[in-house]
Amino acid sequence: MAKFFKLAAAASISLLALSGCSTSTGGDAATGNSNTPADLVKAGQVTLCIDPEYPPLEYYADGSGGDIVGFDADAGRALADHWGVKVKFEVTSFDGLMPGLQTGRCDIILGGLYTSPARLEVADAAPIMNAGPAALAAPALASKLTSKLDLCGRKVAAQAASSNAATVQAMGEECKAAGKGAPIVSEYPKTSDTVLAVLNGKADVLVETNVAAAYMVTQNKGKLEMASQVFDPDTTFGVFTKKDSSMTPAIAAAFKALKEDGSLAEIAKKYDLDPTIVDVK
């Protein structure tokens, strides 16, 4: 994994209110072009549900307000430009992303969500980036974590409603078969809270997506290290749409075009992400 873009944003980025935050692409298009889906929540605008608390994918440029930046945010702007429409970011908490999509607050979720079987039961998804869970701990402990079973019996922090939390919760039987206790999982609403849980001694380990985990390490040098051998990067971030929506093929086609013309690779490099993790089919 490439070294991540160092920014002044602290690990304790504030929890955001459930209000929307609009950002224009800078264009004047109001109706789109021949590639634009006909059933947008608002004509001439693509609306993204997003939780800008997850650098380097989505976060506030000044830490708590202003422009929303990051790979996902800029990919959303590139999508709007491709369709010739404006973009609006509908800000919500992480566990409000899927409800926001289902209730019609937004057209898509572009916000660091795994394409898990449970999510694919209620929504469609097009792949955009390879990902997987990673374990972070204090340096002395991180060097001892070499497999999933090393988390058995330990206090583990993860973001609430995340696939990472579900992954650790599901380890109970595996730990039992190895003669060990299940991980003791604490779920927090913000990723910054999971960092603080480890730093304050409330948890031994935090489990976070590899993309965000590497950024957390850069912001907590000497305090956190990644145990890279604990999990395999075997999952994919997706761009989610409503189940069986006509938006689904339009999203897939749009991001395929943005990958082929190099737009997504350029956005990845802008945030010091390795462009090879961009995965669009």
TrEMBL record:
Domain Solute-binding protein family 3/N-terminal: 45-275
Gene3D superfamilies associated with the record: Periplasmic binding protein-like II
SMART domains for this protein: PBPb
Pfam families: SBP_bac_3
Keyword field: Signal
Ranges in coiled-coil conformation: none
Keyword match Signal: yes
Name this protein carries in UniProt: Solute-binding protein family 3/N-terminal domain-containing protein
Organism listed in the record: Arthrobacter psychrochitiniphilus
